[in-house]
Amino acid sequence: MTEHAEAAPRLTRTQRRRLILGGEYGIFVVAVVLLVSLADWGALKTNFAEWRVAKTLFPDIITVALRNTLLFTVTGFALGLVAGLLLALMRLSSVPPYRWFAIAYIEVFRGLPALLIFIFVGTGVPLAFPGVNFPGGVYGQAAVALGVVSAAYMAETIRAGIEAVPRGQMEAARTLGMSHGRAMRSIIIPQALRIVIPPLTNELVLLFKDSSLVLFLGITLQQRELSKLAQDAASQQGNTTPIIVAAICYLIITIPLGHLARRLEARQKRGQR
C-alpha cells in the first residue's frame, strides 16, 4: 500500500464545461418532456388556435388593423424624428436657454410612461385648449402622442451620433469657407444619421408596439389597430385565438426589423475596423 492514496483525476476545464453544458441540456429536455406530457393539447388548440375563430378576423385584421397600426407608427416616427433632431441640436447649442429646454424635455418625457402621454393628448389637450382639433382627428392625436414619446429618446440617440462624427469634419468644412450651420446640414448631420440608423430602427420597433396605446384615444371601428381589434374579437368570441393572430402580425413586422437593425449594426462595426 502506497503512503499516499491515489488522488482522483481532476477534470480539465474543457471537460467541466462539457459536463455543465450536458447538465443544462438535460434540464431543458426534462422541462420540455414534462410540458408536453402535462399540457392539455385539445384545450390549447380550442382556446388559442381555433381556425374557425381566426377566419372571422380576415380581412379586417389586415385591411383595417394592420394598416392603421403601420400608419400610426410611420406618422409618429416621422414626427418624432424631426422633433428629436431639433432637440438634439438644441441640446448641443451654445445658447443656454435652448440647452435647458432640451434637457428638461428629454428628462421629463423619458421619465413618463407612454400611457400617461396618450391620456394627456387625448384628454388633457382638449380640456386645456377647447375648440382646438388635431389635423386628421385620432390619426393626428396618435402621431403627436407617439412623436412626443419617441422624440426624447431619438434626441439622445441623434446627439450621440453627432458627437461621434470626428471633430476634424467640422474643422475641414470651416476651412473650406462653410458656415457652421451649412457644415452641420451638409456634412455633420448626414453622417450622424447614418451612424444612428441601427438604434433608430430599434426605436421604430418600440414605436410599432407602443401604437397599441392608441385605443386610449377613443377610436372607432375603422380606426382600430391590431391590439384593439384582437381584444374586441376575443371578447365577442370568448376565445383567445384573436390575440394569437394579432401577436403573429406584430412579429411579422418586428422580427425582420430587429434582424435588420442587428445587420446594420454589425456592418457598421465592420466598417469601423
From TrEMBL:
Major location category of this protein: membrane
SUPFAM superfamilies assigned: MetI-like
NCBIfam families: HEQRo_perm_3TM
Domain ABC transmembrane type-1: 66-261
Tree of life domain: Bacteria
Family annotation (PROSITE patterns): ABC_TM1
Membrane spanning residue stretches: 19-39, 70-90, 111-132, 241-261
The protein, known as: Amino acid ABC transporter permease
Pfam families: BPD_transp_1
